[in-house]
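Proteins fold reproducibly. Consider a sample protein:
=====
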Amino acid sequence: MNLNLVVIAMILTLLIPIYEAWKDDSIWQKMLAFSSIATKTSVMILVISVLRDDWMIGVVGVIILSVGNAALMLLAHVIKRMSDVSS
């Protein structure tokens, strides 16, 4: 199996949520799309770290996977609270 095709396929899957975020005006859809992008990017980093046999890159991927989505969801709740107060 050609590993370059796997990496190219992973990059192409990143384009789907980017298109959804660009197309939709809802803030919740944009937040979900960006969360999906963060998750896919961190999985790509983990795959590349396994292919290169470099555990330092893998640690960065795990940190992005665990902390990145938590910060994004916290931001989503802050935006929701702000819109609830202003309405």
Observations:
- Residues 3-86 form one domain.
- The longest helix spans residues 55-86.
